Amino acid sequence: MTLLQTPLYSACVEQKARMTAFAGWSMPVQFGGIKQEHQAVRDRAGLFDISHMGKLELKGPGVIAALQRLVPSNLERLGQGQAQYTVLLNPEGGIVDDLIVYLKSPPGSDFETVALIVNAATTDKDKTWLLNHLPGTGIELVDESRDRALISLQGPAAATLLQPHTPHNLDVLGRFAHRDTALLGQLAWIARTGYTGEDGFEIMTDPDTALALWQLLSAEGAMPCGLGARDTLRLEAAMALYGQDIDDTTSPLEAGLNWLVHLDEKGDFVGRSQLEAQKAQGVSRRLVGLVMEGRHIARHGYPVLHQGDRVGTVTSGTLAPTLNLPIALAYVAAPLAKVGQLLEVEVRGEPRPAKVVKRPFYRAK
């Protein structure tokens, strides 16, 4: 299969990135090393090519009202220039995808514009799901995934590095805020969002401007980072990875995403009855954070045990570079999901001690 290349592919190759196949794209997995890249984001700033992610735009009358029927979150909370992390649900209450919804027009406008950033592996699935629920609404779906580049600049120095290249004051752009702006004299869009647990920005612009910005920020001290560091960073921040920690068979209540479910604030939506039943009856399993004893690393798919019985499954695990501890996310039987619970993870056939801990594992200062 021929892999797709992002507009920054050539720059990544020139910077000696080790490339890998990911969701149909050729993507950098690491440049100088995962631990080095990870720590650069925690200490100063890292630069990620995330142009592979799906970039959709919905335009027309009643876009927010249409999306309200597909997600459990109350999108009517959003003002112009604000964003909401949420999930698309199937009729069983399972997660079709997690995404961020960005409202670009004034709320309640006769003609609304909303940007959606979705996972690369689920872009086609999400488009089909949306199109199946939009007929007759007069809403147009525009897919900019191949036409626009997307860069993520993350870390405590991100604003300092980016500010000289845009005329707008980044200090007034709050968390989960976004705006159209100029970058290097060209039209761009900036959002104060990210997937690392640090402050930072996601920047969408044309391919040529993105390439120039990538090279400039790299020269000014932002370290190019690959998918490897992106995974260790998001796991320390206990951010879910679609396809591992959440999927079509997991509900937001099971995944600890209760804060996305606004049952009291909105009307009917796909999967509502299932979430109401789960809330009333309680879920049978929950996603928890685990810290392993010693240096044993729990990997995706490893069994979780309690008193010799299997009670769950690890979804993500790594040796956390910032904490220097083996951490993991796992679904376990709900009665065993309380903080402090002692469990075991079967690592290469041997049960190894683990403890349920509060999430996230790491929180930025």
Task: Based on the model shown, name its key terms.
Gyrase A, domain 2; 6-stranded antiparallel β-barrel; 6-stranded mixed β-sheet; alpha+beta; Alpha-Beta Plaits; single chain; 365 residues
Would you kindly provide a written description of the structure presented here, covering whatever features stand out?
With 365 residues, this protein is an alpha+beta fold. Among the domains are: 141 residues, Probable tRNA modification gtpase trme, domain 1 (Gyrase A, domain 2); 89 residues, 2-Layer Sandwich (Alpha-Beta Plaits), CATH 3.30.70.1400. 19% of the residues lie in helices and 34% in strands. The chain contains eight helices and 20 strands. It is globular and about 60 Å long. The termini are far apart. The model has no long low-confidence stretch (mean pLDDT 97).
Give me the CATH architecture of the domain at 4-53 and 146-236, please.
2-Layer Sandwich
Biggest sheet, open or closed, and with what strands and sense?
Answer: 6 strands, mixed
Write down the Rg: 21 Å
Tally of helical segments = 8
Overall pLDDT level: 97
Topology order in helix (H) and strand (E) letters:
EHEEHEEHEEEHEEHEEEHEHHEEEEEE
End-to-end distance, in Å? Answer: 44 Å
Q: Approximately what portion of the residues adopt beta-strand conformation? A: 25-35%
Q: Into which percent range does the helicity of residues fall?
A: 10-25%
Annotated CATH topology of the domain at 4-53 and 146-236: Gyrase A, domain 2
Strand order within the widest beta sheet: 11-12-13-10-4-14
> What structural category characterises the helix and strand content?
alpha+beta
Low-confidence stretches: none
